[in-house]
Amino acid sequence: MCTLEQRSNLFILTLTGNNDQHRLSPTLIAAILSALCRVKSVATSGSVLITNSQGKFFSNGLDLPWALAAGCRVKALSRLSQMVESLRLVVAELVSFPIPTISVVQGHAAAAGFVLALSHDYMLMREDRGVLYMSEIDLGGCLPDYFTVLFRAKIGSGLARRDILLRGQKVKGREAVEMGIVDGVWGCEQSLRVAAMELAERLGARKWDGEVYQKMRKGLYPELCVVVGAVTDGIQAKL
């Protein structure tokens, strides 16, 4: 499902499985939350988190096949709601995390997978294979409230938000840079991962105070903090 590796002050969270779409099932969401809590418990000044993945996908969104396997509409919607609320906790944790965070999108990041990547402080993307896509408009599903607030908080251009959310535009690397979504694109997986490590090392070298960093990030995104329930330090009471 996912692994957590520590290299000095850098923590690398990897969604695993070469042929997996890394759909955000209850099990995977719980594993991500557990990994984030472990990082937070041992992080020090100069720590940085990198989230990446194996294979073609960063994440293909919530585990809709698992929801549909419930057998009836009511049960399927209940399972979908469960995943939406569990992912809210992940976004809350990331927006209140005490260290810098970087997502590395080397493949497709769709719907909730896009949300997961966007919840980090920095996004790096592979130019030839990376794709960002919000599929809800095409699938006929409404966005959870915190999805919309996250996009308003993280993407400054109203036209970019319109094209992503109301047109279902599939955004590739260079377009994502032009739209102000990602910090840069790289031509192959190796160069992308090297760039992520170099950025993490530069950020870690600043040795920012974790409590100050957390409070300043929350100050940047007050509406997002409210809607995901991150208005106080951490989310331990909700886990």
UniProtKB/TrEMBL annotation:
Give the pathway listed in the UniProt entry for this protein.
Answer: Lipid metabolism; fatty acid beta-oxidation
Q: Which UniProt keywords apply?
A: Lipid metabolism
Cellular component, GO, one term = peroxisome
Is Lipid metabolism there in the keyword field?
Answer: yes
Q: Which reaction does it catalyse?
A: a (3E)-enoyl-CoA = a 4-saturated (2E)-enoyl-CoA; a (3Z)-enoyl-CoA = a 4-saturated (2E)-enoyl-CoA
Q: What biological-process GO terms show up in the record?
A: fatty acid beta-oxidation
Give the CDD domains listed for this entry. crotonase-like
Q: Which InterPro entries match?
A: ClpP/crotonase-like_dom_sf, Enoyl-CoA_hydra/iso
Similarity comment: family membership: Belongs to the enoyl-CoA hydratase/isomerase family.
Per its record, how is this protein called by name? Delta(3)-Delta(2)-enoyl-CoA isomerase
Query: Native species of this protein?
Result: Linum trigynum
